[in-house]
Amino acid sequence: MTGFEIAGASAADMEMIRGWADEEGWNPGDSDRFAFAVADPEGFLVGRLDGEPVACISAVRYGAGFGFIGFYIARPAFRGRGYGIRLWRAGMERLDGRLVGLDGVVEQQDNYRKSGFRSAWNNIRVEGAPQGRGGADGEAGVEIVDAATIPFGLLAAYDRRFFPAPRDAFLSAWTGLPGRTALAAVRGGRIEGLGVIRPCSAAHRIGPLYAATPAVATALLRRLARHAPEGLVSVDVPDANPEATVLFKGLGLVPTFETARMYTGPVPDLALSELFGVTSLELG
After folding, report:
1. Scanning 79, 110, 136, 227, which has the fewest C-beta atoms within 10 Å of its C-beta?
2. Parallel, antiparallel, or unpaired for β 190-198 and 44-49?
3. At what angle do helices 168-176 and 152-159 cross, to 10 degrees?
4. All residues at 6 or more sequence positions from 85 whose CB lies less than 8 Å from its CB, including other chains
5. Of 86-90, 136-140, 166-170, where does mean pLDDT reach its minimum?
6. pLDDT class for 132, splitting at 50, 70, 90?
7. What own/partner pairs with CB < 8 Å and gap ≥ 24 does 137-142 have?
8. How much is the pLDDT for 139?
9. Percent of the chain with pLDDT over 70
10. Could you report the per-residue pLDDT of 213-256, keeping only the tens digit for each?
């Protein structure tokens, strides 16, 4: 391993990592890296061999007890030579003592199990333009509004129902970056849904998609899809919510990709029945 060094990612590295993820077919958001950087500025690592970047990983700390692994990539020409596992160990060491989550691609899940991860559910990426017209108005009494008009403290508290730790800085950037649209569903002053759509290399991705009911999820999805070319969208749907699976099948979106949400310890108590689309496979 002479000449192999691990260091924190620079701003230029973050753009490089996005490009690597795009080459893997993960379709990262065009501006995701700006929200990722504020989540944990020191949470992105790059491995270099004689100065050349050959591998990367994110090991992001949330709060005092949770962490998330993502962007685990070794360049094809350098795989099978031990550089990736060196970087993996560095990332996991950074999250030592925490409950750690990740979204693992199918071919890596056995390796993650060897490192102590266990599957909680599968995320099925579905893509397409929502078909039909049902649910366009959601439910009586529910209004779809610009999420920026909601006091941020209320949005952050709502997000905590779906994520194991506070992530206010990340959420603020994720919902507010230029070029993306964040919508909330509100009934009687209470938030009953949240959805964000962002431009990507391929289909615009929607995440998170939270909703009290399938009708609210459909209303948010249709409104968000208006901001995508030809209405083509992509959503990572947790199969732990059977109503979400049924909903997207009925709307004509087709499966294209699969990961497993995995944890090193007890599965967090989340509002899975209202989780219709996860925020990000890279940061949870």
Report:
1. 110
2. unpaired
3. 110
4. none
5. 136-140
6. confident
7. 137/219, 138/185, 138/215, 138/216, 138/218, 138/219, 138/220, 139/187, 139/213, 139/215, 139/216, 139/219, 141/187, 141/188, 142/185, 142/186, 142/187, 142/192, 142/193, 142/216, 142/219
8. 73
9. 98
10. 999 999 999 999 999 999 999 999 999 999 999 999 999 999 99
Structure tokens of 211?
Answer: 């909703």
CA dist 185 to 72, 143, 182, 213, Å? 34, 6, 10, 11
Q: Would you say the pTM of this structure is higher than 0.85?
A: yes
Q: Tell me the C-alpha to C-alpha distance, in Å, between residue 107 and each of 15, 113, 121, 188, 267.
A: 25, 12, 16, 46, 22
Phi, psi of 205 (to 5 degrees): -100, 140
| DSSP-assigned letters across all residues of 122-136 | EEEEEEEPPPS-TTT
Rounded to the nearest integer, the mean pLDDT of the chain is: 94
